[in-house]
What we know:
Order of helices and strands: HHEHEHEEHEHHHEE
CATH architecture: 3-Layer(aba) Sandwich
Number of domains: 1
Distance between the termini: 40 Å
Radius of gyration: 16 Å
Strand content: 15-25%
Number of strands: 7
Shape: globular
Number of helices: 8
Bound molecules: S-adenosylmethionine
CATH class: Alpha Beta
Structural class: alpha/beta
Largest sheet: 7 strands, mixed
Amino acid sequence: xxxxxxxxxxxxxxxxxxxxxxxxxxxxxxxxxxxxxxxxxxxxxxxxxxxxxxxxxxxxxxxxxxxxxxxxxxxxxxxxxxxxxxxxxxxxxxxxxxxxxxxxxxxxxxxxxxxxxxxxxxxxxxxxxxxxxxxxxxxxxxxxxxxxxxxxxxxxxxxxxxxxxxxxxxxxxxxxxxxxxxxxxxxxxxxxxxxxxxxxxxxxxxxxxxxxxxxxxxxxxxx
Length: 223
Ligand SMILES: C[S@@+](CC[C@H](N)C(=O)[O-])C[C@H]1O[C@@H](n2cnc3c(N)ncnc32)[C@H](O)[C@@H]1O
């Protein structure tokens, strides 16, 4: 089906941000951590950057899983970052997770990173190169990349089925957002074209669940 872009890139409306923060994304966030583990056999003790971090559940999970990692987490929506700050304080991970309010493409990051992460941001972007450009601009040679997102279904009917299957108990605002996100998501082929345009041919694009794709691999510079 044809892509329908999200009405707004940022989730900066307080009610929308709160509904998102209170939703249960434990299954997909656990899958994200599993994919990260698969990319890093053994310990990860470097600097990671999470782009479009939202309420910071993934940075917090990562900080628990890798006690020597440092994590910067970036989002353009202050409403989301307020919720992220509260969750990080509750988790006791405030020393290792630092928040940045920036809009992509992010140009004010002073650090180079060993791992570039993003979950469920790509489909928000009307210009997906904003993400790939940011990743290229702040990655150390050999850095790992893991970007996970929704995969656009083949038809509106299939999108409706996924909403029923995964969000039938969710509040109306979340069901509406989920449906809009499925319509705004990119296909495997579109993401491959984005990577070719960004000169990132070394990254792999695979379907990792009935509704998710992942882009993963390492950037050039290391054997
Ligand atoms: C669907 S949420 C995903 C949050 C989190 N990564 C997760 O997995 O739960 C997408 C987030 O990306 C942020 N975002 C969207 N477009 C952005 C942009 N151009 N620059 C920075 N953040 C953006 C939104 O504000 C929102 O918090």
